[in-house]
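Saturday, quiet lab. Running sequence design on the structure tokens for the scaffold JK sent over.
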């Protein structure tokens, strides 16, 4: 908390380096104007929670979020997976999650959560 208080002070340090897990645990970092994700996380909610530390009550600045992804790296693969997860969530939640899920029949629900073995094999080759 002492380090957070120092960062939050106008005369404090100009940046605060945290792991994504530490940055996502209940901190208020309203002095931040930039959030930089150097190491992407598999779960988009974890990244969003870390980003939200700068978007707390009392934030008066515009906050820019930067995510570094280099071609050909594991981070690029994680980024693609995150985008696929977001697209799937958006597809499911259009019109409200409860309504969409309750409108699905058993076959549609099974299709949603089933492993596509052909796609899994293709990605391995």
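Result came back. Writing it out in full:
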């Amino acid at each position: 908390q002492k380090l957070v208080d120092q960062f939050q002070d106008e005369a404090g340090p100009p940046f605060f380096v945290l792991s994504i897990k530490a940055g996502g645990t209940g901190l208020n970092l309203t002095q931040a104007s930039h959030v930089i994700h150097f190491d992407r996380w598999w779960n988009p909610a974890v990244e969003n929670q870390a980003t939200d530390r700068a978007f707390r009550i009392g934030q008066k600045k515009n906050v820019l979020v930067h995510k570094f992804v280099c071609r050909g790296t594991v981070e690029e693969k994680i980024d693609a997976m995150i985008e696929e997860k977001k697209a799937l969530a958006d597809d499911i939640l259009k019109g409200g999650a409860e309504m969409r899920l309750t409108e699905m029949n058993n076959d549609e629900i099974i299709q949603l959560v089933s492993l596509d073995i052909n796609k899994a094999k293709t990605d391995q080759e």
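Notes for JK: The radius of gyration is 19 Å. Helices lie at 2-8, 20-23, 44-52, 74-93, 97-103, 106-113, 117-124. Ask whether to fix the surface positions before the next round.
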